[in-house]
């Protein structure tokens, strides 16, 4: 659907969603009022009200009587690999305000075959594996993920093997040490039932629906910098930006 054919209220919704995904609008921030939306985007107040209703229906906004409509991202927003990359390139930060990650494992181990194929290393039996759980400002787990890197980076980027957060993210550390910068990502997702391990990490019941993702970050030459896999609980909206 072209932008010109997209209803005006959906165009405004898409703009506000992009600001929420990027962190420009954070949890608890006030959204523009109906009158402000109408003036800024040259739409009717009825259309502006529809913008607010749509964001509320999608779990991205909430309103209390007598108070402004505010952004809410407690357990409703799923940030994709592309979102993380855009944030890293534009702000130097992987996580938005209120988010934090706990690194639960960091070691050299044998990768799955699909990971080894994507990494393209000569030694397919060894790769760096970093595991983390990402939490929101309410300390609720919003995703569990694993990042894989070539074992060759163990010497040049030793922080990858430390079970602690890397300020600026793994991609920033790799760029500083090697000059290789991730500039694009490809991601595939599917719905599935949570395994016992996934359920334990996310604090849900086994068998509950979850979103599984696999992604690869590549540099300007098209070579793989990082391969990732993640799982997120149901009830999260994923926002696609054109």
Task: Outline the fold blueprint.
Layout: H1 8-22, H2 34-41, H3 45-57, E1 61-62, E2 70-71, E3 77-78, H4 81-91, E4 100-109, H5 113-119, E5 127-135, E6 141-150, H6 153-156, H7 170-178, E7 182-193, H8 196-202, E8 209-219, E9 224-233, E10 237-238
Parallel strand pairs: 3-10
Antiparallel strand pairs: 1-2, 4-5, 5-6, 6-9, 7-8, 8-9
Helix pairs in contact: 1-3, 2-3
Overall description:
- The protein is built from eight helices and ten strands.
- It has helices spanning 8-22, 34-41, 45-57, 81-91, 113-119, 153-156, 170-178, 196-202, and strands at residues 61-62, 70-71, 77-78, 100-109, 127-135, 141-150, 182-193, 209-219, 224-233, 237-238.
- It is elongated.
- A hairpin with a 5-residue loop joins strand 5 and strand 6.
- A six-stranded antiparallel sheet has the order 4-5-6-9-8-7, sandwiched between helices. Strands 1-2 form a two-stranded antiparallel ribbon. Strands 3-10 form a two-stranded parallel sheet.
- Helix 2 packs across helix 3 (45-57).
Structural key phrases:
242 residues, six-stranded antiparallel sheet, two-stranded antiparallel ribbon, 8 helices
- Termini distance? 11 Å
Poorly predicted runs are none
Helix vs. strand class:
alpha+beta
Rg, please? 20 Å
Principal-axes shape call: elongated
For the biggest β-sheet, the strand order reads 4-5-6-9-8-7
Strand content: 25-35%
Q: Tell me the total number of β-strands.
A: 10
**Helix-residue proportion:** 25-40%
Average pLDDT works out at: 86
Q: Helix count, per DSSP?
A: 8
Please write the string of helix (H) and strand (E) elements. Answer: HHHEEEHEHEEHHEHEEE
Largest sheet: 6 strands, antiparallel
């Amino acid at each position: 659907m072209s932008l010109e054919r997209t209803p005006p209220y959906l165009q405004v919704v898409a703009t506000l969603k992009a600001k929420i995904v990027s962190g420009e609008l954070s949890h608890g921030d006030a959204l523009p009022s109906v009158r402000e939306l109408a003036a800024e985007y040259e739409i009717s107040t009825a259309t502006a009200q529809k913008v607010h209703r749509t964001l509320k229906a999608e779990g991205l906004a909430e309103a209390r009587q007598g108070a402004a409509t505010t952004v809410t991202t407690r357990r409703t927003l799923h940030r994709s690999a592309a979102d993380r990359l855009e944030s890293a390139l534009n702000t130097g930060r992987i996580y938005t305000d209120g988010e934090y990650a706990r690194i639960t494992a960091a070691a050299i181990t044998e990768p799955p075959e699909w990971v080894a194929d994507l990494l393209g290393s000569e030694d397919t039996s060894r790769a760096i594996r970093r595991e983390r759980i990402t939490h929101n400002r309410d300390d609720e787990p919003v995703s569990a993920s694993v990042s894989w890197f070539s074992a060759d980076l163990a010497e040049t980027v030793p922080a990858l093997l430390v079970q602690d957060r890397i300020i600026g993210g793994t991609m920033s550390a790799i760029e500083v040490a090697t000059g290789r910068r991730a500039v694009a990502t490809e991601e595939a997702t599917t719905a599935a039932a949570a395994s016992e391990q996934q359920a334990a990490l996310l604090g849900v019941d086994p068998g509950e629906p979850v979103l599984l993702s696999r992604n690869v970050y590549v540099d300007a030459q098209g070579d793989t910098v990082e391969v990732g896999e993640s799982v997120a609980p149901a009830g999260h909206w994923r926002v696609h930006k054109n």
